[in-house]
Amino acid sequence: TVGAVAVDREGNIATATSTGGRNNKWDGRIGDTPLIGSGTWAENATCGVSGTGNGEFFIRYAVCHDVASRMRYLGESVQEAAATVVEGLRKVEGEGGVVAVDRYGEVAMPFNSPGMYRGYIRADMEPQVFIF
Amino acid sequence: SRFYSVIHGGVGTILRTNFPREEQEQYLEALRTSLRDGFRILESGGTAIDAVEAAVRYMEDSPFFNAGKGAVYTIGGNIELEASIMDGSNHRASACTLLHHIRNPITLARTMLTTKPPVPHVFLGGAQAEAFARDKELEFVEQGYFYTEKRWKQHIEGLEYPPSNSESKGTVYGKSVPRDHDPNPMG
């Protein structure tokens, strides 16, 4: 799975996610990526989120929407909200991670797997990229 | 003038010690290029929607990631792709799934989001999604375009009943081939 979240000059947030799904999934299986709220979410008031991992768990726990909801209703930062949701996934044996950006440009990239390909960029800086 | 972009290329199950440094650098460079593609749009005053489409589109075209070229196989030996996009300024979203021949699923989702007159539905799948893409003259490819040796090997190794010719590179199996009905197939 791949995904991106961006905040533009107007302060608008957008999220995109794309995938081939799981290796040897059943033909006809639909994962979390195209399900808005599970693998993809964006709202200017809170954040944009894109997920990757075991899609069945992302669907059952509405992972990306949950990150935004924690910010909206609990007043958590994007880092706190994303970390809590991904840690919650781990507790139910759901493997994966998210990338998220809030409207102020704060970035979160938590994951509970051995690695996650990820990176971020801001004005006047070189791209920052990571695997482990 | 504050604008930002963050991307991911999926989660990895491989340990650092089993991941050659040279291969790691190839992945990192692909991530950098994706970030730059999206960020260039933001720098020039483009929208966040334009930026995320560009960033994801690059990764769909790269054989390193599980999307577009380089995607994993289904248990039946097919490529089935899906994508979604959401605009945080107005809660508009579009998504597509069960795609077999669309080179860039994210561009299909983006086209659904912004086309005039508006698409009345958020989520299209299968034949109807591909018919919409054909109507909008998006790029179609054969299944073989998505093939990579690495993904085919993962597919074969994960099957309980692999085909007799494991070098068949994407051959769709006949219905007589027994299927693995484990709800959590190896992968």
What would you say this structure looks like, in words?
The complex is a heterodimer of chains A (132) and B (187). In chain A, 24% of the residues lie in helices and 33% in strands. Chain A has three helices and eight strands; from the N terminus they run ββββαααββββ. In chain A, the strands form three sheets. A four-stranded antiparallel beta sheet of chain A has the order 3-4-5-6. A two-stranded antiparallel sheet of chain A has the order 1-2. A two-stranded antiparallel ribbon of chain A has the order 7-8. By secondary structure, chain B is α+β, with helices and mostly antiparallel strands. Chain B is 36% helix and 14% strand. Chain B has a three-stranded mixed beta sheet with strand order 2-3-4. The radius of gyration of chain B is 18 Å and the shape is flat. Chains A and B meet through β1, β2, β3, β4 and β5 of A and β1, α1, α2, β2 and β3 of B. β2 of chain A pairs antiparallel with β2 (81-87) of chain B, so a sheet runs across the interface.
Outline:
By secondary structure, chain A is of the alpha+beta class. Chain A is 24% helix and 33% strand. In chain A, the strands form 3 sheets. Chain A has a 4-stranded antiparallel sheet. A two-stranded antiparallel sheet of chain A has the order 1-2. Chain A has a two-stranded antiparallel ribbon with strand order 7-8.
Structural class, from secondary structure content of chain B?
alpha+beta
Low-confidence stretches of chain B: 174-183
Distance between the termini of chain A: 16 Å
Strand arrangement across the biggest beta sheet of chain A:
3-4-5-6
**Major pleated sheet of chain A:** 4 strands, antiparallel
Q: Name the overall outline of chain B.
A: flat
Q: Roughly what percent helix of chain B?
A: 25-40%
Number-wise, the strands of chain B total: 4
Oligomer designation: heterodimer
Overall morphology of chain A:
globular
The average pLDDT of chain A is 96
Largest interface: A-B, 72 and 87 residues
The chain-level mean pLDDT of chain B equals: 88
Which series of helices and strands of chain B comes N to C? EHHEEHEHH
Fraction in beta strands of chain A: 25-35%
Q: Measured on Cα atoms, how large is the radius of gyration of chain B? A: 18 Å
